[in-house]
Amino acid sequence: MKFSLTVVSALFALKSTLAVNQLTIKGSKFFDSVTGQQFYFKGIDYQPEKGAPEGDLDPLADSTGCTRDAAVFKDLGVNSIRVYQTDYSRNHDACMKTFNDAGIYVLIDIPTPKYSIDRSNPSWNTELLNMYKLKVDAFINYQNLAGFIIGNEVANDVPTTASAAFVKAALRDIKTYIRSKKKNIPVGYVDNDDLDIRLSLIAYFNCGSDPMAQADFYGVNTYRWCGANATFKSSGYDQMAEPFKNYSVPSIVTEYGCNVVQPRSLGEMGSIYGPDLQDIMSGGFLYQYSQEDNNYGIVDVSYGKSAVTKLDDYAVFKKNMAAANPKGTTMNSYNPSLKTSSCPSVSSTWMSSSTLPPPPSESVCSCMVKSLSCVVGSSYSTDDTGMVNALSNSASTICGLTSCADVTADSKNGTYGPYSYCSSTQRLQWIINKNYLNQNKNSSACKITGAPLNVVSPSQSNINSCPNSSSSSVTDAPTAPSGTKPGGSSNSGGSSSSDGSSSQSGTTGSAQSLILNHTAAFILVLLCSFSLF
Ligand SMILES: *[C@@H]1O[C@H](CO)[C@@H](O)[C@H](O)[C@H]1NC(C)=O
Ligand SMILES: *[C@@H]1O[C@H](CO)[C@@H](O)[C@H](O)[C@H]1NC(C)=O
Ligand SMILES: *[C@@H]1O[C@H](CO)[C@@H](O)[C@H](O)[C@H]1NC(C)=O
Ligand SMILES: *[C@@H]1O[C@H](CO)[C@@H](O)[C@H](O)[C@H]1NC(C)=O
Ligand SMILES: *[C@@H]1O[C@H](CO)[C@@H](O)[C@H](O)[C@H]1NC(C)=O
Ligand SMILES: *[C@@H]1O[C@H](CO)[C@@H](O)[C@H](O)[C@H]1NC(C)=O
């Protein structure tokens, strides 16, 4: 009696929890690290926004929502979700356990709209490194964490390709940070399937002599397949997949589900999980779970509420998922010999050098500031746009007259000043101080209308004895920012463009908005060179 009760409860326990095994990558495929079976993402993009509290979106902090949706995922046959926006400072234990128990892997985007590399004014700096580490720390210990995404559609056309070097530097440093914690969580990059730049991007994130600077997987957000009559060929899915045929790491369709024709028939699922792509890619994620303004949802849900309303596309997705039965291989019988890519050369259509920005180091930056003789006063605030603009305008003018290469990053040329990764306030002070020294410490060169500046005697006598950038800055523990809560309420973020892609490459806040290009400097020189000194 006692025995059979135990058996019954053991069976019940097995049935009610499907805790997942860690995933591992071999060649261009994912595997279950315990069973050795190939793993395909039967995924859905997950970012419910309705009714969410003020601040950063974070569906993984809504335990009611996660319990509600874990049951829906089971009904759909989904085994993974991708979550774009989360708040490192909230607790995710309940949601991650709920999903783990339901057999759901989670792919986490590291950036948020406020803390991300800005495609049109890119920088990989101390602040972003710190924020990205905090995000890693918030999720790294969950067993069902499938991987991290270092950037989503950052370079999305030819003019923004200069941002790729900064994203690749971020990838290198975050991989280094994760490996320093003895974790093998993969870190990947995701593009927007832009025909002009995709081949370069796919090669770029897979090239170079430093394996830490290569993506562990590559994602494509693609909306090529539209309408019931589209086929693998007519949609261009065959071309979409072509560069991944001999790619050395796994590729995933991180967003699919064109909604131009409604209701959707989602015929691409037959290709993603069938003979067309099962040997090339590792599954995909439907965009998206919840119905939002952009009209891609399959359910209607609201933060903290248990109700779920199924929409038109729910049944189609469920039926196609039930038919998805990709024929994979096993880790033991798969022994690939795949080569990494050659780096694309810099050209008018590709503006990221294979020489990457250095790892940001806060100790280098604070030492640099300690060596300065003209610095901002304690009343200086990066939240005060008047002060920031006063300093930025002066700095732009100065940089039109003297070299600011030490605080400037040029990813097209592959040249990065030793302080180019410092905060904008630190870099601005370096520039103002340079002018102050050039003016032989004339006190009027340390005065700017609208910004507090002080002449001080530096506590660090020689800038050249400051430490150099090193990988220890990458493995150091992050510090939670003080003052206003990160993510604040100023940026609701996650705004979705018409193609359904959730843009993550918005602003990085006023702290990153320093413009130091020569056009701007030249114009400012013309406008205000007489009033400055
Ligand atoms: C799809 O094909 C069917 C049958 O051939 C045809 O009736 C229909 O008009 C086509 N739809 C579109 C959008 O081309
Ligand atoms: C992939 O590699 C195989 C074997 O080396 C080769 O035959 C094939 O042409 C390659 N395909 C592409 C698209 O490079
Ligand atoms: C470009 O890089 C070369 C060496 O890598 C350097 O000498 C040169 O100054 C750089 N040009 C600019 C405009 O920064
Ligand atoms: C940092 O690098 C510079 C130039 O490479 C060198 O002159 C300096 O001695 C280095 N500083 C330290 C502390 O290693
Ligand atoms: C430089 O700044 C000017 C003025 O802000 C802007 O119009 C231009 O696009 C910038 N150029 C580059 C290459 O960033
Ligand atoms: C300091 O700069 C001001 C403003 O440019 C100028 O009038 C003054 O002569 C300078 N003083 C010295 C000692 O160079």
UniProtKB/TrEMBL annotation:
It is found in: Cell envelope; Cell membrane; Membrane. Residues 372-468 form the X8 domain. Its main location: other. Residues 1-19 form the signal peptide. InterPro entries: GH, Glucanosyltransferase, X8. Keywords: Disulfide bond, Glycoprotein, GPI-anchor, Lipoprotein, Membrane, Signal, Transferase. Residues 462-473, 482-509 have a biased composition (Low complexity). Residues 462-509 are annotated as: Disordered. One of its GO terms (biological process) is fungal-type cell wall (1->3)-beta-D-glucan biosynthetic process. Pfam families: Glyco_hydro_72, X8. GO terms for cellular component: plasma membrane; side of membrane. It is a lipid-anchor; GPI-anchor. Gene3D superfamilies: 1.20.58.1040, Glycosidases. It comes from the Eukaryota. Its EC number is 2.4.1.-. Splits internally a 1,3-beta-glucan molecule and transfers the newly generated reducing end (the donor) to the non-reducing end of another 1,3-beta-glucan molecule (the acceptor) forming a 1,3-beta linkage, resulting in the elongation of 1,3-beta-glucan chains in the cell wall. Belongs to the glycosyl hydrolase 72 family. This is 1,3-beta-glucanosyltransferase. It comes from Zancudomyces culisetae.
